Amino acid sequence: MEFESTRRRFIELAGASATVSLAGCNALQGGDGDGANTGTGPQSQSADADSATVTVVVEPDQTQLRERQQEIQSELQAGNLTQSEAQAEYRTAQENLAEDAITSFEERATSDLGLTVDDSISEAGALLVTGPPAGLIDTLSIESVTGILSQATFEQIRSQARTETPGASE
Question: Where is this region: Disordered (predicted)?
């Protein structure tokens, strides 16, 4: 049985974009190129020069998701679920685990890294996060984080999430 994986493909593409965006993470520093933050020139960021806003992408616990998928497949094979019910169960499992990943990230980011979560798109696992550049980079040490993207990417993800309808196939 094959489940719809449009969200998974999106996360994979977002992860690839993260690699590219990390190459330009010097823009997060807001400095003059030598690591010093002078607060002058075109790179200075208003009064809050020591913080930046980025999109952080998280994914659900893949082990738990695989376990749930196996349970659903067993139920399908036993005849206890139809194909559409199995897909609905799988989507629900994905959504619940994604919400768990977001909640876990929010707790750790705010308490341990001094970050602020400004907004989130749970169906895409995307969060708009503000804080010091070092804290933003430290989010990469959180297991569920798959990438850091530009702030503008958050609105692109929101737009894409709005155009996708549950149950629609591509």
Answer: 27-54
